[in-house]
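Prompt: May I have another protein with tokenized structure?
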Amino acid sequence: MLNNINKSNRLNNLSYAIRGPVFEKAQQLEAMGQKIINLNIGNPAPFGFDVPDEIVHDMIMNIRNAQGYVHHLGIFAARKAIMHYTQQIGIHGVTIDDIFIGNGVSELIVMTMQALLNDGDEILIPSPDYPLWTTSVALSGGKPVHYICDEESDWNPDLDDIRRKITRKTKGIVVINPNNPTGAVYDKDVLEGIIKIAAEHNLMVFADEIYDKILFDGAKHIPMGSLSDDVFVMTYGGLSKNYRATGFRGGWVILSGATHRAKSFVEGFTLLASLRLCANVPAQYAIQTALGGYQSINDLVAPTGRLCKQRDLVHYKITDIPGVTCVKPKGALYLFPKIDLRKFSFKDDEQFTYDLLCEQKVLVVSGTGFNYIKPDHFRIVFLASSEELETATGRIRNFLDHTRTRVDELELA
């Protein structure tokens, strides 16, 4: 008898809730002809957010030049444009060779952990987080250790909790700012506190800043790499969100600060960059134009812009539901509402998202899918049109009203 072919043991406790069991159920329902309102993934294209024409034009004009392999770090013009961008945002001392281009930030995150971690090494990751960080650490043989982001402090990281969780095996701290899933834009003193902790304990900092231009209400993004020359910082950015080019898979990572301490790591990281030969070449021809051209994202996040108005709409509609609260996001594309579970008959966020999908045909993601410690949050993407968001939030309200406990109904009466 032939043995079954099993997945790696490293995958046993890993998941990606954004495309997990509830998402699979949504696909089944769509295959049966039912229309689902998809508020589960930060993918601008299906909602009418197009890549700027000048970026598409430059890719088309250079497509003949993109037929062959290029330098494993990326084409010179793209890396030079990123280097100039670091000068604009205050990250000092970055050279062409300190910039690596990848097939989106996702590939570079996985490569980073593969190049860095030995079995049992620990990485501090925010809770809630973008789950790829947790998964990539575990896949690379490391141990993800989650530090608390405090909802009562606008979702800023808890510095004391970070300190408590550092051990002799800790190698670095992940900072996601602006944050996915909470939409937080971190305070400068908190970021400086993280840099201070990293310096004290000889740790790397991994700064996921893919949403650095998606800011609301005058919020200011402070790049981690601009805060210290004494800590080794890896800053991740790309085309996916600021330029609505998720499918182009054009991302980069910038090495800054104490790069002289990381020569061995950089050798390993460079080896991995070489093994995949090169990143997607057509997208690399879009980078110079994107960074140097008109920043249309500023129009979208302005008070009269579509993204800002949709954020305001969803925040108002969600927080108007009794039993639901939400810190208003200052950046990114998401809200992370909290449900008072005492007021409703479902047991946790996973049951809420599954039942909401089945009954109201609205797809969101549970908060525990982002490695949050409490089962009482969910994430909404506010990319859909205002009309569709009105419909979706109305359905969420209907669902919650129908699942209220009898005690809560009497209190509201």
Summary: The mean pLDDT is 94.
